[in-house]
Amino acid sequence: MPLYVYVFLTLSLSVAGQLFLKTGMLRAGDRLSETAGQAQSWLPVMTSLWVWAGLICWAGSTVFWMVALSRSPLSHIHGLNALSYVLIPLIASLCFGEVLHLRHWIGFVCITVGVILILNPDLLQVGHGPS
């Protein structure tokens, strides 16, 4: 498979993992806060299928990331992970009703521009044109 497929799978599973964990904690988290400090307080969390789905996604994400690392310089592909800082809040706003403020949108633009610059280093080359 091409490198971008592994990076896409890494990013997709990482984002899905965060969303599944959030869903699991929303469902089990209320019980966790009610029984904080008690041994059984983590039982609803550890038996949540949503939490387990999130952990499995993270494990899958790690496997695909290791394959991607074996095929490309870390400095080149690591910037793509920053897209999770854009995708997770956007999807969380749709799924969980989380509010995005202007500072989020400014950050999204900065991150996206940064990723574009990392993937296209020729954009900032000085004297790269014809002579």
Q: Helix and strand layout, with pairings?
A:
Elements: H1 3-34, H2 43-46, H3 49-71, H4 74-81, H5 84-96, H6 102-119
Helix pairs in contact: 1-3, 1-5, 4-6
What is the gyration radius calculated from CA atoms? 19 Å
Total beta strand runs: 0
Give the number of helices: 6
Biggest sheet descriptor? none
Helix content: over 70%
What amount of the residues lies in strands? under 5%
Which class do the helix and strand fractions yield?
mainly alpha
Taking pLDDT < 50 over at least 5 consecutive residues as the criterion, the unreliable ranges are none
Q: What's the mean pLDDT score? A: 87
Principal-axis shape? flat
Structural description of this entry:
- The protein is mainly alpha-helical.
- It has one domain (3-124).
- The chain has helices at 3-34, 43-46, 49-71, 74-81, 84-96, 102-119.
- Helix 1 runs antiparallel to helix 3 (49-71), helix 1 packs across helix 5 (84-96) and helix 4 (74-81) packs antiparallel against helix 6.
- It is flat and about 60 Å long.
- The mean pLDDT is 87.
Task: Give the gist of this structure.
By secondary structure, the chain is mostly helical.
Q: Can you give keywords for this protein?
A:
131 residues, mainly alpha
